[in-house]
Specification:
two-stranded antiparallel ribbon, EC 3.4.19.5, beta-aspartyl-peptidase activity, alpha+beta, beta-aspartyl-peptidase, three-stranded mixed β-sheet
């Protein structure tokens, strides 16, 4: 039986209309991750090791929605998550991480070294420290680009409440939206 590898850099896409200065590093990052995954598979590296290796690389590249470069919370902080599974009903997952450099590796440790499948927030961070997992100050994960993305989201995705239960919303994108929530209410 052969093998295959597929990867992605997070939610969204890399449109050709993105300026080359922003698009090309993302494409190169994905190409790099694909290359190391293919080389590891050619060397008969176990599939689970390849998954962790490739995801660690994605987490270390600031252009993707994982690790450094993660999407920020509304408070401008990072809360990262990861999950890994091996096809035998074993899995490990983490969420709410703020200092762990590679969440995927912590998820794997949970799968392999605990009876649990999921740890979050302070418990996950404490487990990471106990296992000697690399941690850094949370500012490591915040990039100028994800700060700018958050500013844009806060401006573009506002909800404004008006008197008489008239709720209007504004958002960016090509979606459709009700003109106002009051359109759904019966008239008096």
């Amino acid at each position: 039986m052969g093998w295959a590898i597929a990867l992605h850099g997070g939610a969204g896409d890399i449109p050709l209309s993105l300026p080359p200065k922003r698009r090309l590093p993302r494409e190169a990052g994905l190409g790099h991750c694909l290359h190391i995954g293919v080389e590891a598979l050619k060397a008969n590296t176990p599939a689970l090791d390849v998954v962790e290796l490739v995801v660690r690389e994605l987490e270390n590249i600031p252009y993707f929605n994982a690790g450094k470069g993660s999407v920020l919370t509304t408070l401008g902080t990072v809360e990262m998550e990861a999950c890994i599974m091996d096809g035998t009903k074993r899995c490990g997952a983490v969420s709410g991480l703020t200092t762990v450099v590679n969440p995927i590796s912590l998820a794997r440790l949970i799968m392999e070294k605990t009876p649990h499948i999921y740890l979050a927030f302070d418990g996950a961070e404490a487990f990471a420290r106990g296992q000697g997992v690399e941690t850094v100050d949370s500012s490591h994960f915040i990039t100028p680009e994800n700060v700018e993305r958050l500013k844009h989201a806060k401006v573009a995705n506002r909800v404004q409440v008006h008197s008489c239960l008239n709720l209007s919303s504004t958002f960016s994108g090509n979606g459709k939206c009700l003109r106002s929530f009051s359109d759904l209410l019966p008239t008096r």
